[in-house]
Amino acid sequence: MKPFAYARPRALTDALRLAQAGATAMAGGTDLLGLMKDGIVSPERIVDLRDVEALRGWTRAKGKGIRIGALETLAELEASPELAKLLPIVGEALRPAATLQLRMMGTVGGNLLQENRCWYFRDEAYPCWLKGGIRCFAVDGDNRLHAVLGADVCVAVAPSDLAPALIACDATVTLASARGTRTLPLSDLYRVPQGRARRMHGIIPGELITEVRVPENALARRGAFEKAMERKTWSFALVSVAVSVKLIGGVARDARIVLGGVAAVPWRARAAEKLLESRALDEAACQAAADAALDAAEPLKDNGYKVPLARELVRRTLRRLA
Amino acid sequence: MSIRVVKTQSEFEGEISEEIALVQGKDLKAWGAAADLSIVGKRHPRIDGIARVTGRAMYTQDLYLPGMLHVRLLRSPYPRAQVQRIDASRALALPGVRAVLHRFNAPKAPFRGEDTIFREEVRFVGDEVAAVAADREETAAEAVRLIDVDYEVLPFVVDLEEAMDEGAPRIEANGNVSESGKYERGDVTRAFASANTVVEQTYRTSTQLHNSLETHGAVATWDGDELVVHESTQHVFGVRAGLQNALKIPFSSIRVICDYMGGGFGSKGGAGKYTIIAALFARQLGAPVRCILTRDEENVAAGNRSATVQKIRIAAARKRIVAIEHLSWSNSGQGKWVANPPGPTNGLYDIPNVRTRSYRVVTNMGFLASFRAPGYVEGTFALDQSIDELALRIGLDPLELRRKHAGRMTDPQTGKRYSLKRLAQCYDIGATEIGWQHRRPEGLRGSAPHRRRGYGMASQLWGGSGLPPAYATVHLNPDGTVVVRSGTQDIGTGTRTVLAQVVAEELGVTLKDVRVEIGDTNDQYAPISAGSLTVASLTPAVRLAAADARSQLLDVAAGLLEVRASELRVQGGSVISHGRRTPLGEILKQVDNYTVVGKGSRFPNPEDVSLKTFGAHFVQLEVDVRTGEVFVEHVVAVHDIGRVVNPLLAASQVEGGVIQGLGFVLSEERVVDRPTGRVVNGNLEGYKVPTVRDVPKITVRFIDDPDTKANNVGAKGLGEPPIIPLPAAVANAVANAIGVRVRTAPITRARVLEALALRR
Amino acid sequence: MAKAPDFVGPGALDVSFTVNGDGVRVHVPPHRTLLDTLRETLGLTGAKRVCDEGNCGACTVLVDGTPVYSCMTLAVACAGQVIETVEGLASNGELHPVQRAFIDHDAYQCGFCTPGQIMSCVALLRRDPSPSADDVMRAVSGNLCRCGAYPNIVNAALGAAKKRTKR
């Protein structure tokens, strides 16, 4: 890890001021320090956000949904019995994520912005396309963990378990910088890296995530989350599926199906969602939606298994809500 | 007592070798099944537990000496290349850098058959190119990046089956494939010709990485005439030999120490290049030097269990196995040897016609190293699956088929009678504990939709007889306390505790009065802590040393108490004479600081019997046929290892072996990028060792019948047996559950789903 | 921190925190991890460096009572915090109940992961004095043990809890 200068502001305004000129913001540090130790990034200045109290905690305002501060730790969210009542899918997504220590250290903002786990990206020796290099090494290398949907040049996948769950709940994210704030759907934060935009999210240098909001109407929907790993715990998802759906009189409305681990972004299966509209979540409908969700899959040499696996996880997650 | 020289044959990890043992006096009569033992055979927590739970146990990694320098290594980025030029000037200019060693300036230091540690032609990604010593580790790491090297990149091959291909780049003059093992009995050709049923299949196992939590490493100091090396090793004397060979200095100038060490599993068998480099820098710079590998380095340049491809042809006639042919190829990387996967096929089952071949395949990957039952884990994975496949074809219960070939009391390879064999009893116990009667050839419905349940089992054969030479001394202090000394090491099995139990038992003192000093070449020789050797090699020697100490003590006591020594005995830390108890301390303090020193040496194994360990694992599991996930529910591990010296520690060993076996068969796989030859998951994120959540219910059973022919304690080894049958048992249970066989380890979701898809 | 916060470093600076009950001040650069500071500067080598990137748990220590990976924690970020390591658990020569239970249940083999496992169990028992086996597994599922002492680790934590609740 290269030496760096360090600042630890208390006020958000100070944090934004310090972050504006090319400094890197750090929350829990569990991803950033790993990238730095691996030589993938070498910031000269780090703004440690841990003392910015304004970014902590989560609140519920009647009729206005839920607001989660970007510095809320994953463990706090997971352990909250109140949140478990309001938005159980969050706890469900966090429980199999990483480890207790990492959830104690890691924050919501950091989780949403974590870098992908592609082993070529994470190995300094590969000048991979996403790092500004020449080409994707995974395409003709070992790509068992890589994307089956919507890939362009880079076939790395979105690693977060929390992001699919929150996107399924129509979450928005607020970004602040010294120049002001903007709010956008969380799903719009993520990009398939393309052309000159060799990044998996669209945050601008100097910007911080300050909060995530889940709208009131999403709280009325029921959610479920499933994750497949290479061992029983402490693994990034091979495939994860988050579903949120309103059930009125036994039929589905407003379904959201979001997959992790299959594409560069948390993958909204819109065709599958549409297919479920006004249908009961019976076996046939769930299977049809699952098939539709993976309809466009284009597996690589080593990851064909992800297609049936993802299909089954979608079907299973939907059936749990029936 | 005069010393006698005894020549003897010994088995180490399936290989037979000639050894010379020096022994004194007569061996003791073995403790039989009826022996009245109060300490041996009982559950005793480890005597070094406090050091381990307080953080005070000093591992090599924990040694920080004043003025110590740190080494980082520059490793080849190419799988094969000529090192043409090295310019270290930029590295040397970095403040804090003390020296750089590489092939153009390092002194000659012979290492494993080569005359240098920095090769002209580097042969795998991770091969050592240069070393930097600096006053901080991060400075050394930064300096490594500043070394400029010109490489001429050469053709290479990294994959086992690609390397076997005729068209592959030849990386050794005689070709990439060479025969390393060969065995035949009976007439295989005729037996196959006359058989009713023949099953022929190919099995594959992946490269498994040891991932000992403490990486390989050494800390060296050189004070002018003595080189002291602390190393995380399974063999301090092996490290000493390696240092002597490399540096050409006398044994009297080398001391190797290993107090606590953080796991070995076979790969820490002697000096590594890091050891020699630390010593060279220590000599050159006159300061303590620390060279500890990083996790990534550990996983590319510190050994691995070879990947294998194995072809088995197995034949039945009249519902018995009549012949088996087992051909195996192992990716030895840049290793100079290879394990013998057909070992179990040669010796486990009583099959009349057997032909096996083992081939070493060289590739441009890191070298293999012994890994807990090298060859036998991979070989049993293939062998015991082929038996299940044959059983299914001929309509027999796989356990029944095994029973037909497991009962004979003579070793099919040597014709010698086994000293002890309780394999059939292992089958009985395992079958009962797992509920084998519930097994159906077509599998069972599982506990949830889309889940299938299956049962599987496999057998275990391993040596474990122990061997000479092994020596120990027992020191009886004037206060009646005892110190046992031997140059062995505790790799996590509980060596100190087990030795203390045997000494306390023989000497008649309490366990808390015994301390065990190990891991120092200034003590007497003990063998490598590997191959399930330690208990069977060393406990007979310490028992003799304790007996010698007792006999001397009684002579002293007889003189002081003015009775005949034959009228005295030692019990509970006291000398008993005609019903009167005198504590040892009271006797010995009369002779002013006299230390009684008893010596013991390991006698040879009997040559008229075959000494083996046996066992069987039974597995109950479920498989989700839609997601490919395997849920292991219950493992029953039954082992026949002679006397169990400490059931508490022995059970821990078995659980550990089972869990490592689960990793091998379900999740562990080194992944190599073929175009570049780099290991892409040489870390604990991408390489999946089991977590606490991956552990099923494990039932451990021992036959615990002392093998009185084996040695005076009646104990055999337990280190490797519990990993050997587990992978095959899991594979058989998976096949039973889903009706289709996954013949490649690890049995991942991807492979399960692929196998199921192919059936449809 | 100063009132008008600004960057410090990259050179070394003074950082004060409490380690095992004692106030300490170290002089470290911002990029130095808590793990390296404990081991190299403070001589507390119980926490181990195994992966150095948050993949194993052998460096687990408690910061303000919370189990964290000290290899992924900057020392400078611990200013003013209370750090506990395995070396600080025993008091007046008496082992902590979790340490005692690890010995009694043989919850280790090589012992290299043991300090981290123990710290995770200690933190659990403070949060929840009578955990279930599942709670224990959740608490130590971020601590790898290559020897496979897991069954005994779970038994040790449950055993320590039982002994404590009895008292």
Number of helices of chain B: 18
Order of helices and strands of chain C: EEHEEEHHHH
Most extensive protein-chain contact, per-chain counts: B-C, 54 and 52 residues
Rg of chain B, alpha carbons: 27 Å
Described by the principal axes of the CA atoms, the overall outline of chain B is globular
Strand residue content of chain B: 25-35%
Total number of strands of chain C? 5
User: What do the pLDDT scores of chain C average to?
Assistant: 95
Distance between the termini of chain C: 44 Å
Low-confidence stretches of chain C: none
Residues in β-strands, percent of chain C: 5-15%
Supply the number of helical segments of chain C: 5
Topology of helices and strands:
The complex is a heterotrimer of chains A (322), B (760) and C (167).
Chain A (H helix, E strand, L loop, with lengths): L4 E3 L4 H8 L4 E3 L5 H6 L7 E4 L9 E3 L5 E4 L4 H6 L1 H6 L1 H7 L5 H6 L2 H6 L48 H7 L3 E6 L2 E6 H4 L18 E7 L1 H4 L2 E7 L10 E10 L2 E10 L6 E2 L1 H7 L6 H11 L12 H16 L1
Parallel strand pairs in A: 1-3, 2-3
Antiparallel strand pairs in A: 4-5, 5-8, 6-7, 6-8, 9-10, 10-11, 11-12
Helix pairs in contact in A: 11-12, 12-13
Chain B lengths: L2 E10 L2 E10 L24 H6 L14 E7 L5 E7 L1 H4 L4 E6 L18 E2 L5 E7 L2 H8 L3 E6 L6 H5 L12 E9 L2 H7 L2 E9 L11 E6 L4 E5 L4 H12 L6 E4 L15 H13 L3 E4 L2 H7 L6 E10 L2 E14 L9 H5 L5 E10 L13 H19 L3 H7 L12 E2 L4 H12 L9 E2 L5 E12 L8 E6 L5 E5 L8 H13 L6 E5 L15 H28 L6 E4 L2 E4 L2 E4 H5 L7 E6 L7 E2 L2 E12 L5 E11 L6 H20 L5 E2 L4 E2 L17 E6 L23 H13 L5 E2 L3 H11 L1
Parallel strand pairs in B: 3-14, 10-34, 12-13, 16-17, 18-28, 22-23, 30-33
Antiparallel strand pairs in B: 1-2, 3-7, 4-6, 4-8, 5-7, 9-17, 10-15, 11-12, 11-14, 15-16, 19-20, 20-29, 21-22, 21-27, 24-25, 25-26, 29-30, 31-32
Helix pairs in contact in B: 6-7, 10-17, 13-14, 16-17
Chain C lengths: L12 E7 L2 E7 L5 H8 L18 E4 L2 E4 L12 E3 L12 H8 L9 H14 L5 H8 L9 H17 L1
Parallel strand pairs in C: 1-5
Antiparallel strand pairs in C: 1-2, 3-4, 3-5
Helix pairs in contact in C: 2-5, 3-4, 4-5
What can you tell me about this protein's structure?
The complex is a heterotrimer of chains A (322), B (760) and C (167). Chain A has 13 helices and 12 strands. Chain A is of the alpha+beta class. A 5-stranded antiparallel sheet of chain A has the order 4-5-8-6-7. In chain A, strands 9-10-11-12 form a 4-stranded antiparallel sheet, sandwiched between helices. The longest helix of chain A is centred in the last third of the chain and has 16 residues, at 306-321. Chain C is of the alpha+beta class. Chain C has helices at residues 34-41, 97-104, 114-127, 133-140, 150-166; strands at residues 13-19, 22-28, 60-63, 66-69, 82-84. Chain C has a 5-stranded mixed sheet with strand order 2-1-5-3-4, sandwiched between helices. Classes of the chains: A alpha+beta (322), B alpha+beta (760), C alpha+beta (167). Chains in contact: A-B, A-C, B-C.
